[in-house]
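Aim 2, interim progress. The first record below pairs a target sequence with its C-alpha cells.
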Amino acid sequence: MSLYTNYLDEIETRKIQGLNPKPIDDGALLAEIITQIKDAQNDHREDSLNFFIYNTLPGTTSAAGVKAKFLKEIILGEVVVEEISPTFAFELLSHMKGGPSVEVLLDLAFGDDAAIAKQAGDVLKTQVYLYEADTDRIEAAYKDGNPIAKELLDSYVKAEFFTKLPDVEEEIKVVTFIAGEGDISTDLLSPGNQAHSRADRELHGKCMISETAQQEIEALKLQHPDKRVMLIAEKGTMGVGSSRMSGVNNVALWTGKQASPYVPFVNYAPVVAGTNGISPIFLTTVSVTGGIGLDLKNWVKKLDDDGKPILNNDGNPVLEQKYSVETGTVLTINSKTKKLYNEAGDEELADVSNAFSPQKVEFMKAGGSYAIVFGKKLQTFAAETLGVEAPLVFAPSKEISHEGQGLTAVEKIFNRNAVGVNSDKPLHAGSDVRVKVNIVGSQDTTGLMTMQELEAMAATVVSPSVDGAYQSGCHTASVWDLKAQANTPRLMKFMNEFGLVTGRDPKDVYHPMTDVIHKVLNDLTVDDRAIIIGGDSHTRMSKGVAFGADSGTVALALATGEASMPIPESVKVTFKGKMADHMDFRDVVHATQAQMLQQHGDNVFQGRVIEVHIGTLLADQAFTFTDWTAEMKAKASVCISNDETLIGSLELAKSRIQIMIDKGMEHENGTLARLISIADKRIAEIKSGDVPALTPDDNAKYFAEVVVDLEAINEPMIADPDVNNADVSKRYTHDTIRPISYYNAEKKVDLGFVGSCMVHKGDVKIVAQMLRNLEAEKGKVEFKAPLVLAAPTYNIIDELKEEGDWEVLQKYSGFEFDDTAPKTEARTEYENILYLERPGCNLCMGNQEKAEKGDTVLATSTRLFQGRVVADAPEKKGESLLGSTPVVVLSAILGRTPTLEEYKAAVEGINLTKFAPPLEVPGTSRSVHF
C-alpha cells in the first residue's frame, strides 16, 4: 500500500501549510483505497471511505474511471459496502460529469435488470457531458427498440437536464467587499508568481489579494450568512490584464457556492463588480462559472453648467459618488427587473441589465456556460435522431441585422464562422452567436487548468473541426526549477495525446521549444478570416481575430471546436502623415492610445474590437500593435492588410511552420501539414482575385473612429505606471503615456528588459546595431544598468546567427542561456551586463524571473502592474515603465532615461521598425527588417 502511505505523508505536509488532503486524480491510489474499503477490519477504512466519496476528482481522470467501475459493482450487487447503497452509488455517479461515469450509466441503462436500467436512465437524463461514443450508443440502442434509449431521447429533446433546474433567484442579496481602488489586475486575484499552484485550487486560493483580505471576507460571510460577498474594483475596472480562470476560481473559492458536495474546492457563481465594470475577457471567465459581473457606475464625472466635465489640476475629470459601496454595504440585485437596489430594495442604484442577458441568465441557471454548450448539442442530437424539431428551450441566438448597413472586418469574420444561425441575413454587432474556432492555443501556466477542465468535461481528443492547436512552454521557460520539472512534462504528455502540437516532445525526441505562444499562434494562423482562442490575454493575432480566454474556454474550444460570444462593436483606427526617421513603431502604438484619449476623452477601445488599417506591415511587426490592444482594454484587434503584404505574411508563416515540421514537431494527426495547405489555398485565392485580403465594407458602422497623426509623434513614448499618483485609481493603468522629455534625463533606470511577445526579429537586430554604433563611437560599451534580452523564438536566434548579429550580442553578454544546462533557480540579483536569456516570456510573466525589489525597470514588455515584473521594496515602490527597444537599450547603457538628443544620436543610421499609412505608399512597401 505504498501509494496510500505516500498520500498520508503528503497529507501531513499539507497540514503544516494549513491545507486539506489534495483531491485524488490517480487511479492506482484510489484502487488501494477501495481495497481498504472492502476490508472491514482495515484501520484506514473510515478515512478511505471519505476519500472515495468526498475527495476524488470527476471526469476522465484515471481515479474517476476506477471510482465509476467500483460504483457499478455496488449497484449490481457484486460488492456490498454498508455506507454506500446502490441509490447512493447512483447519486455519486450523477456528480461525476461524464466520461467513465456516463459509460457505466449507459451499461446499466441498457442492461438486463429493468429496475436498475430505470434508475440509470433517470440519472442520465440529468447529464449533459456526452460525447460521440456515448450518443452513438444511445442512437444504436434506440434503433434496436430499447425503451430506456427512447426515454433518454425524449428527455434530451425537451432539454429536461436544463428545464428542471431551479431558476435564478429573483432577489440576490450581496454584501460588498472593496478588493482595491482603481483598476484591479487579475494578478491581484491570482498572482503570476504563483502560477505553479493554479491546478491545486485550495493552495492557490491562499494567494488571492492578501491573508488579511481573506479574513475580512470570511468575517463578512459569518456576519451575513444569507448573502453573497461581492468583490469590487472601486473607481476602476475589475479583472484587467487577463482572463485568468484561476482568478475567478479564487474568487469563487472564497465567495461562491460549492459545485458538488462530493468534489472539493470547485466553487462557482462568484459576484464581481467594478465602477467601470468588468474587463471583457475576464467577464467571459465569470460567465464560465455562472457568475455575475456588474457595472456599478457608482462614480460619475462631475459636470459644469454647460454639461462639460470639470477637470482637476492634473487635467483629469473630477468624479463624484452617486452611491456608496464601501465594504460591508448590503445591496439587492433583482434578476427580473435587472436593477441594483439598496438593501431594502426600494431605491434603484444602477441598471445592470447587461449582466442579465438571456444567455447569461442561462449560464447562471446551469452553473456555467459549458453545460449550456453541451446541452444545446445534446438537444440537437436527440432531435435529429428522433426526426423531430427541437422545441425552443434555450434563448435563441441573438441575431441583429441592419438593412443596408455594411459589415466591419470582425462582423465579416463572425458571419463566415457562425454556427446554427437561423437567418441568412448578415449579422451585425450585438448579435450573440456560436462560432467555429479555427486555431486554439494553450499556454503552460494555465495549461494544467485547461487539462483539468478537459478531464472534468470528459473530453479525450481535440475536435476535428479545429484547424490547429498548440501547447506552449514559454511562461515557464526561464527557470527549469522543480515546479516546472514536475508540471510541464505531465502537461505536454496530456496535450500531445489529446491532439495538440506541443512545444516540448513528451518522447524527448525534438529539442524543447520555449517560443512565446503568441508568436507561434501568429504563425499558425494562416487565414485572415480565422477565429483564434488562446489561454492568454495577449492572444491577439495580426491575421484573423483572436480572443484571449480563460483556461476553461480554451478547453471548450479544444473539445467542441466552438465558442459562443457576442459580435463586438468596432473602433476604426487609421493613420495620417509621415513617421519621423528617429521614431520606432512601438512609439506609434503608444501614441495611438494617447491620441485616442485626447480625441475621445474616454477609452473608446474598452470592450471593443480595434480595426487597425495597417496594411503595409508584415504580420510579425503588425503584431506589436495587436498585442498592445490587450493593454488598451480592447476585446480584440483586426489588422486590415493589403493583398501583397498578406501574401508575404502567409509565406513567412508557411516557412516557420515548415521549420516546426523539420524539427520533428508535427503531430501524428498532421496538423502542421494541414495548416500549410490552408495557407496555400488562401494565397491562391488572393492572387487570383477571387477572395482578396479581408477589408470592411465602405458603409460599415463603427462605434468610433480614431485617426493617428504620425507627424505629432516626435519623441519616444513611455507607458508609465505612475506609482506615486495621489489618485490611487490612476496608478498602474496603461493610460499614462509620456514623452521621453518628461523625465529630463533624470529618471534612474535599474534594469532594462528587451523581450516578451511585443518584440520581433527586428527589435533584436536593433540591439546589435546599437552596440555596433556605440562601440564605433566610444571604443567600448559599458552598461550602467543590467540589460536582459530574451528573443521570443528560437527561429529568431537562428536567423540572427546566420546574419552575424548574435555574435555581437555574445560579445557583450555576461550570461548566455544553455539549453543543455538550464537555470534551476530564478535570478534575484543582476550585474551591469547583458544577459542573453532563453526564448520565452521571462520577466514579463513574473512567475519565475523578477527584477530586484524596488527597482525601476524599463522594458519592451506589456505588463506594468504592481508586483508583476518587479515587487516593491520597503523603502521604494517597484515600477515597470514600457517603451521601445532603442529607448530600453540606451537607458540600460546610461543608467537613466536619455535626452531626446542622446536618443537621436544613438539611433542614427539604425533601421528602426518603420510604418507608413497604406494609402500613402505603394503596396510593395515593407520594413527593412524583412
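The second target in this work package is listed in the same format:
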Amino acid sequence: MTHRQILLVIFGLMSAMFLSALDQTIVGTSMRTIADDLGGLDLQAWVTTAYLITATITTPIYGKLSDLFGRRPLFLFAIGIFLLGSLLSGMSQTMYQLAAFRALQGIGAGGLMALPLAIMGDILAPRERAKYQGYFLAVFGVSSVIGPLIGGLLSGTEEILFVAGWRWVFLVNIPVGIVALFMVVRFLHIPRFRTPGKVRIDWWGATFVIVALVPLLIVAEQGTEWGWDSVAAIACYVVGAIGIVAFILVEIAMKQDALLPMRLFRIPTFSVIAGLGLLVGFAMFGAMMTIPLYLQLVEGATPAESGLLMLPLILGLMVSSIASGQIIARTGRYRVFPILGTAFLALGYLWLTNLSADQGIWFIMVGMAVLGLGLGQLMQTLTIASQNAVTARDMGVATSSSTFFRQIGGTLGTAVFFSLLFSRLGETLTAAFADPDIIGPLTEATQDPAVQADPANADILALLSTQDPAQIGNALDTDSSFLVGADPRLAEPFLVGFNDATVSVYWLGFVVAVLAFVVAWFVPALPLRQVSAMQEEADASAVEAATAAQIGIATELDEAEALTDAEADRRAKVGALGVEPEIDEVALRAAQLSGSLIEPTTTGTLHAIEDDDLPKRGR
C-alpha cells in the first residue's frame, strides 16, 4: 500500500477508535451524577462491569471471525451494535436497565477495541507500525481529555433539548458514530486472507467463554456481600471452573479453527505477553475508574473538573508511548519497555498509597503522571510483541487474544477494586467517626446555628441525627449528593473514610504492579519484523502459486512422456501388421505437451519436428 492509502485507512480506523475511546472516558466522570439520579452509587460497578464483560467475551470472537470473513464487515457490524447500545443507554430509567444496555454496547465495543489493532497489523510491519502509533495516540489523548470534560459538562447540565443532561453522555455517540461509519465505508478497503478448506466457527468455544467468565466476574463483584465462602460464591467457583475446563477441551478439539488456538501458547512470547496483559489490565482499569470518583468525593471537584484533573495521566501516557514508539521504530527492540513500564506503574501506585484527605490536589496529580508514564510504555508494546510472534493468518486472533487478556484483567480489576472499596468503606467511616480530631469540630458544627440554618447542610444533619452506625456507614453506597455544599466540618469524616478506603485499593494495585514487573523480565527479546502481514501473505501466496505451477508443469510433462512412449509402442505393433494407422488424438496431445512441433507423415503417423530440422523445413 502507498503512504496515502495507509493514511486514509488509518483515518477510518481513528474515527471508530475515537468513538470507543470517547465512550470509555465520557462515562467515568458522569457516573456519580447518573447514580445519584437513578439511585444506586454502589451499583456503578455493575454498569462498568457489564460493559467490560461483553466487550471481553466478544473480543476474541471478532478477531477469529475477521480472520475468516474479513475485517471490514465485522468492523461495520461492531459500530452498528455500539450505536444501538448507546441509544438505549441514553433512555435508561434504572441502574439495572443501564447495566443491561451497557452490556449491549460492550458487544460492539469488543470489535472497536480489537479490529483496529488487527488492521494495523495487516497493513504495517511491526517496526513501521510504531511510526504511525502517534496518530492513534493523538485520538486517544484528545478523547481522554475532552471526554471527561464533555461528560462533566453534559452531566452537570440540568436539561439539553428537554432531555436530562447526563443522558447525552450516551446520545452524543450517535452523531460521532455516523461520522465513523461513513469514514470506514469510504476508506477502509483491504483484502482479506482466504482460509483454505471449509470454514468452521467455534460456537462452543464462545459459549464456554461465557460460562467460564460470567460467574467468576459476578462473584468478584458480589463476593464481599455474599461472603467468599457462601453457597452462591461456591456455586460460581464451580461453574466457572467447569467452563474453563470445557473451553480448553473444546479449543484442543477445534485445533486450527479454535477461537483461541492452544498452539499459540507454545510460542513463549505470546504466552508471557498474555499473562502480562492480564496483570496490566487489572492495574490500569482499577486506577482509571477509581481516581475520578476520588477527585469528586474527596477533592470536591465537579465532573468537568475531574476530567481536566486527569490530564497528567493522559499526558504521561502520550509522552511515554510516543517516545517508546519512536525508539522501537529505530532499533527494532522492545523488551526494555515492559520492564520500565511496570516499574513506573508500581511506583505510581506506591505514591498513591500515601494519600490523605487533607493533602493538596498536586499530590494525586503527581501519582497520575507516574501511572501514565508506565501505561504508555505498555499499551502499544504488548500488542506489537504479540503480533510479531505469529504469522499473517493468525494476526486477527493473536491481536484479539492480546486485547482479550487485557480486558479480562480490566474487568476483574474493576470488579475487585470497587468491591474492595465499598467493603472497606463501612469500616473506615466507623474509624473516622471515632477519631477525636474529627469528632470535636463535627460536634461544634452540629451545634452552630448558622450551620443548622444552611439548607445545604440539611441532608447531612438529618443523617447524623439518626446516630445509626449502620446507616451512616452505608451513606456513600447509594447517594453522595448530601456532601455537595455541606460544611467542611460535617463532611470531613466522610471524606477521610472514603480516602482511607481508596488507599486500600491502591495497595492492591501496587501488589499487582509488582507482580507484573516480575513477569516482564521473562518477555523474550526478539527483533521486530520489517514486513507487514499483507506483504507476508502476498509473498506466501506467490510462493504457493509458483510451487503449484512447477508441480503442475512437471506432472504434465511426465504424463506427456508416458503417452508418447505408449503411442510409439502401439504404432510399431500396427506397422508390423501392415495396417494404415489414423492420426491418434491422444498421441497428438502427448506430443503437444512435450513441447515439440508435430506433423502427419505419409504413413499417417506423427513425426516430431526437432529444432535442428526447422531451417531445412522452412518453418
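The longest strand covers residues 597-600. This observation will shape the mutagenesis plan for the next reporting period.
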